[in-house]
Amino acid sequence: MASPEIDRLTQALARLPGLGPRSARRAVLYLLKKREGAMVPLLEALALVNENLSTCGVCGNVDTTDPCGICRDVRRDSRMLCVVEDVPDLWALERSRLFPGKFHVLGGRLSALEGVRPEDLNIAPLLARISEGGIDEVVLAMNATLEGQTTAHYIAEKLETSPVRITQLAHGLPVGGELDYLDDGTLAQALRARRPVA
User: Fold this and answer.
1) pTM of this prediction?
2) Residues 18-33: tens digit of each pLDDT
3) Is-same-fold flag (4-52; 62-196)?
4) DSSP helix/strand/coil, 51
5) What is the maximal distance between C-alpha atoms in the chain?
6) What are the φ and ψ backbone dihedral angles of 166, each rounded to 5 degrees?
């Protein structure tokens, strides 16, 4: 059996999403065998991110700079703002490289069962960003869940009197699906076929 230190590493990896105890053991064994080529660069990368990790004060993205790279990118269309539930959704849309605008991360979604209210999310900063002007379109890219659609509806109601065009991702995304798990083709089609919120 492994030493307590190796067991601790295995248990820490097993707590990561997508890794169970068996996958964590395989990862640890790989790191032990490839110490210089895999473990040392991984440790250096983790230490660097840990030292510099921050949440973007503009959009809520996680990066090593504040504001994040997306918010600082002058090539992006600042007139388009895509609102997502959480950082994995932003990264999934960004991976498709099809949305040319900026983002806003809510930090979750409204949920009566979980006790998540509007004031628990980054909705007030979103409304403040929009009220500053310069934004022509707000894309509501919520997950196709009941809570996601409730959140989108709530934001659309708050923006009813705003002059911005409000759109949402096209339906056709699987019901109950989450953006982070969708392939690039599905995300591309959803972005291309976005439509106004009724």
Assistant:
1) 0.78
2) 999 999 999 999 999 9
3) no
4) helix
5) 65
6) -110, 125
Residue 94: which H helix or E strand, with range? Answer: helix 87-96
Give the homologous superfamily in CATH for domain 4-52.
RecR Domain 1 (1.10.8.420)
pLDDT digits (tens, 9 = 90+) for 105-114: 999 999 999 9
What tens digit of pLDDT does each residue of 128-170 get?
Answer: 999 999 999 999 999 888 899 999 999 999 999 999 999 998 7
- Comparing C-alpha atoms, which of 109, 176, 118 is closest to residue 148? 109
CATH code for the part of the protein at 62-196: 3.40.1360.10
Give me the half-sphere count of Cα atoms (radius 13 Å) on the Cβ side of residue 107: 18
C-beta separation of 167 from 111 below 8 A = no
What does residue 79 show for φ and ψ, rounded to 5 degrees?
-80, -10
**What residue segments make up the domains of the chain, in order of their start?**
4-52, 62-196
Q: How far is CA 11 from each of CA 20, 23, 40, 50, 102, rounded to the nearest angstrom?
A: 9, 11, 19, 20, 38
Give the CA distances from residue 130 to residues 68, 83, 94, 125, 162, in Å, rounded to whole numbers and listed in that order.
19, 11, 21, 9, 8
The pLDDT tens digits for 23-66 are: 999 999 999 999 999 999 999 999 999 999 999 999 999 999 99
